[in-house]
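Recap from last week: sequence in, structure out.
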Amino acid sequence: MHNGTNLLRVRDYNQQLVLNLIRLGNGASRVEIAERTGLAAQTVTNIVRRLLDDGLVVEAGKGTASRSGGKRRVKLRINSDAGYSVGVQLDREEISLLLLDLNGRARSKSRFPNSPAAGPLGTVDRAADAVRRLLKGTGVPAENILGVGVASPGPLDHEAGVVYDPPGFEGWGEVHLKEMLEERLGYPVAIDNDVVAAAVGEHWLGVAQDVGNFAFVYMGGGLGAGLFFDGRAYRGSTGTAGEISHVPLDPDGPECWCGNRGCLARFCSPRDVVAVVARDLERGQSSSLRVYFDGQQQKDIDFEAVCRAALAGDALASKALGRAARMLGNALVGLVNTLDVNLVVLGGKNFEQAGRLYAGEIERAIHERVLYGHRRKVEVRSSRFGEDTGAVGAASLVLYSAFAPQLRGLPAE
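Predicted structure tokens:
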């Protein structure tokens, strides 16, 4: 738990601190807030009064009596309807949306098709239209929408909201995504890399709420890692921290599109796993996946099909996914040794398909081979958001920015 400060000029920090404590504890009394934050009782009283006046919290009945036998403490709880955040995940072929209330509960979600050939204007128009339809269906008042968060493939500048020619997006150069969406929707828009957004969502609402230092390993079409240090997202000097898909594992390995050889992505990205399976089928190996192969060319085989086959016991599919999981485990041992995180979270659409197959190999690699394993415990957890991971993360960008306790610097005297 963070400690508070009684300086008037950081009132916003203290207010965020109190609000977050109430949220994480599913309620707290004024006395409990003072005890857990170290804030003076009068400071807590003033903050709670503001939160009540703003409608962000409500008094929700009596709690337990005080130790001294005095009157029962009044519990304060988050007012779920006081604000909402819209999350949008942009993908080459799909736009995913989700509406979160102030308590982090999903109130509505939807998916719309996208097209790689739509270009930036077409994609932005589809995303804006999808947001309008989502909100119209929920009936949430416009004034209760705190903002729209967008999880986008990178590279990008999250502060300026500019995306720079993401791989697989045709016709995208320098796209001012934040500005374009704000013009169309009229709400504040926050943009971040889809992997970073997923990590923010996991820290705000998921299995990493209690962890300050962790790596979120995201597997969608590719691989990436969102990093948190001391409870804050780490993006690096140019916003590209966490590009584990291009960690070189074998200098004599297959050539990667980045220009190097033997990158992690070439061994365990979904596309490359499918390519290995297709190659083995071409060589005549036995598999239930042969129904996707007519002896001359691959037909509609995808990563989901490979995962289903492996879970059903198919030897060829299990071998391909097992190799991919071991290579990822190798990379994550290096990541844990280098960054000294104490949690690795696995999430994203394709981990939803193959999570059990990957988690065992990754846990084994970390538990057996991480440095100083006898002195520290590194956990591996799976995200509970499944295919909604990106949209939850996008919506969490708004809530995290507004309500997470973050000191942003103090004004000069």
